[in-house]
Each structure stands twice: as structure tokens, then as C-alpha cells.
Amino acid sequence: MGTSNFSERPSIEPKWLMPTVDVCLALLAFIFAYILRYDLQLIRPVLDPSRAEFAPYIPFALIYMLMLFLTYQSGGLYRNIRGRPLMDEVYIIVNGVTNSTVVLLALFFLLQPTITSRLMLIYVAGLTVILLAVARVFRRYVLAQYRNRGIGVQKVLIVGMGDVGQAVLRVMLARSELGYRVEGYLDDDPERGYADLGRVRGLGTVDNLPDVIRDQGIELVVITLRWTRYNHIMELARICQNLGIEVQVVPDIFQLNLRQLQVENMDGIPLLGMQAAEPFRGTNRILKRVLDVGLTVLLSPLWVPLFGIVAFAIYLEGDGPVFYRQKRVGEDGREFELVKFRSMIPDAEKMQAVMVMESGEDPRHPKLENDPRITKLGKFLRRTSLDELPNLVNVLLGQMSLVGPRPPTPNEVDLYEPWHMQRLQIIPGITGLWQVSGRSDVPFEEMCLLDIYYIENWSLQLDMQILMMTLPRVLFRRGAY
Domain locations in the chain? Predict the structure, then answer.
């Protein structure tokens, strides 16, 4: 299973839009290249007095545009595959530009037009790649904004909530820009089928499939049952097809993520190998540490004065220490002392257990709205996340990272189920994927799914993306209390 690529679906955009944009941008590349070659003459040290008209280039531009369209159409660029990596599209773009440019060079050689410029073709090729790549980035941004607002999303039902089902759910929750909205899941285990997983509802056993599809308005069914139940899977797929519902089946070979799958060819015989999934070992761990320390030190002129102002304000507010220290569980279950600015009244921790019990909050991730223990200044600090500013000290000490799962308390960990422990595999962070997905509004089970997705799919790019998403979440104070 490719975790980031589930289906080809009709998009909210017209099918003709991107082909039209591409050919128009290709023509624009010809115009810009003409200006660079004959007006600006950037490369030539001495201005070239000869100046060709643009008109003789128009037939070649039309051929170039047609070649690009045909290459991209056959290369699958216009297939609406959700989750396809941007670099895959860029590769197709570069391949099409290369082939089309070679054709033009051949035509120049055969036809020997009066005025031609090979330098201009180089400009055309480079500008086309840049313009079409930028268009793809912009398209992805616009589609993500629409889908994050619920426009053009697809109602999904997951059948089977074992390891593979949870892997599918993690991707759909973590990447809302893909346009999947999970309405719930079914399972062949009745106990699991009727137990909600965060905000994702358990809708019963697989026998309920036809009724759930009709009642919930399901548009896509993803079956993740084990292949030992092949006949049952085929029966469920036929039910979906008879109801006119799209169905997709996820193979559970070795319970592998494709990022862990190594495919080799031995004289025509495919060999599948399993690679160790350790994204935070070796060089990657060093890179993440360099990012943490580098950004913390680089931004110190901003956070150090703010640190002093907040500390002084807490001191003036009244009794109690400026800092609050608490034992937290970090990487591989190791405990450390987390440092925060105090935002509650003294001895507030003694009231914790009673308040959680009375509120009915999940004790594994308690978030009490309108908590009476929080001071007046503390409310401001929490809504702006300034109470967590001393966490940067933990980052410099190597106990935490800027990005990662939020560290739980030992009492919370005591209540974890075995699969929840996966979120403790790496160094905890100040911000993370679940924080930028809703902060306190995200229930515990969903938080674990997002944290595990982050661990399985870590990259420096993902860390930078989460950091950039954190600031607007803090400023708009969504889900913070």
C-alpha cells in the first residue's frame, strides 16, 4: 500500500483546466524567451544588433505546445491522482520539455529557417519547467484550501481497523488536503467495531456494510481486512460495486508501509525486502538536532527578551513560583523534568485527579476548558502558548525537540494501550502534527494516530511545514485552553 496515494478521482477542477494552463504557459515561455534573447540579451557581453521578428517562431511554438500536451497526456500528468508527490509531476514536466525541445532542434536542422536561435530554445525549456512547476505548486495550494474547508471531499468508510486500517486512517487524518473525510469504520470484531476511535465512529460489524453505505452517504469504501479472508473481501467488494460505490482494497503483505518495502528483480522474479523503519537514527537524528539547536539559537533575540517579560509578569501577579516543573515521559519511556511558566494557582496539581473525574475528560489526555485553577495571566499565557516558552530550555538540553509528540505524564502513560506506546519512540516536541491539526480539540486516540503518522513519515520538510503552521494556529488561538 502506498500510504499517500489512494486513488484517481474526479477533481473539483474541470479536466480541461490544467492542459489549457500548460499550453498557455508554454506560449508565455516562448514570449519571455524571445524577450530574454533579443531584448535583454543577458548572456551576450556585447549587444547583438540583429533582431528577428517573433512571427517566424509562432509555428514552432504551436508545435512545441502540441508536443507538450501529447507527452503529458500519455505520461499521466493529467490523471488526477491524489497524494502524488510533486517531484513525480516535475519529472514528467522535465521529460516532456526535453523531448519537445529535441523535436524543435531537429526541425531547425531539417527546415533551416532564416532566423533561429538555439539559445532561445534553452530559455524556452528552462522557463517552461519553472512556469509549469509553479503552476502545480499553486494548484496544490488552492485544492488544499478547498478540501480543508470541506469542499470536494469524499466520504470514506474503512472496513477493518487492524494495523493496516489504522495506517490508512492515520494518513487520511494527517493529510486533510487529500480530500478524504472518514465517516467511520466497520470491523469483523464486534467489540472493536462498536468502539469509537477518537472522533472516528465505530459503526459496527462488516455485516452492516450496505446499511452504513446508505445511511452515511458513503462514496468510497477502503477494505483493509487480512488476506486470509480473501473470499469475504471479494464479497464485500461486490456489495459495494452493486451499490455503485467506489471500493479499494489495501494489501496487508507483511503489514508493511511501502516506505519500508524494497523491491528487487532477480532475472524476472520480483523480490520484496523489508527495510528497518528508523527515521530518527544516524544522520537523520543529527539533522533534526541541528535544526532544533540552530533555530532556537537563531531566534534567541526574539524569545529571550519575551522570556524575561513573561517571567517578570508572573512574579508581579502574586504568590507562587515563576516556573512550573513536572515529570514527563520522553523517548523510549525515559523520564525528564519539563519546565513551563506557571499558569495555575499553587498546589493546582493536587486537584487534578478529582477535576478530571468530575469533568469526564479522558485521563490519558485531560484538557479542562474553563479550568478554575488557571490564573488570570495564565489564561493569556495558555491561549498564546507562551507558558511553553521555557520548553526551549529542554530543547537545548536535548530532552525535547521543536517538533514531535507532546510528552505525557507518567500517570497518563500508565493508562496507555500497547499501540499508544508507539508515540514514545522518539524525542518529544514543543509542537507537532496534532497541535497544528486542532490542539486541545483533537481527542487522545486521534492524537496518537497523528503522532504515529509523523514518526513513520518524518522528514526535515515535514518539520519545517509543521513549524510554519504552528504560528497561525497560535495567533488564532484555535483549540487552546
Answer: 17-148, 154-255, 283-476
